[in-house]
Amino acid sequence: PAGSTVENPDLSESVFIGDSVSLGFSRYCAKKGLMKDTTFLTVGSYSVGHALSTSTAKDKGFQHPMYKGKEMPIRKAIAEIKPKNIYFCLGINDIVDSGVEGTVKNYCKLINHLREDVPDATVYIVSTTFLVDAAQKKNLNNLNLSNLNHNMKLLCLEYDNLEYIDIMSSLQDEKFALKAEYCSDEYIHQTDRAYAVWAEKLGATK
Predict the structure, then answer these.
(1) Which of 5, 70, 171, 206 has an alpha carbon within 20 to 30 A of 199's alpha carbon?
(2) Where are the alpha helices (DSSP H) in 71-204?
(3) 57: how many CB neighbours lie within 10 A of its CB?
């Protein structure tokens, strides 16, 4: 049903779009031979706001993911690939500039654009990662990230073919922070042990 928290979604004919945390997962999958049929469009510091941009100018201040050997805006890449499933794991880099409300609004715009480009695709929102407790900052903190996840889960209730995948609850400690054992840099990036949980939740181990 729409809006449900799903596990083991369909990984065939899929695109996975994300930031540096997702980039780490793509490298884990390559090392383990997982999700071979998935196209990973991941790049460090990427955001929902960036994904909305169609600009490829060098002075734009960020980089789109690489596809077929060149930098390509998400909508253009998606239009070429025509995937059956689209996974997003973004939001960390949006919180400071856009806040929770602005990030959700941008996600809505992005989802609506994709519905025009690939109307039959199912979109999966993967929960945004928390930080280790000591790494929290003024705006980039686990309360805001938790609120973002909550709002995205509610958003999934409003759309058909939009599903929420909760990975973060399996990686958090009693303070609702990223467990230290799953963190590779005392900040937000993750270890292979964490990515093994991702793979299990996404059904990539089968």
Answers:
(1) 70
(2) 74-81, 95-117, 142-156, 192-201
(3) 7
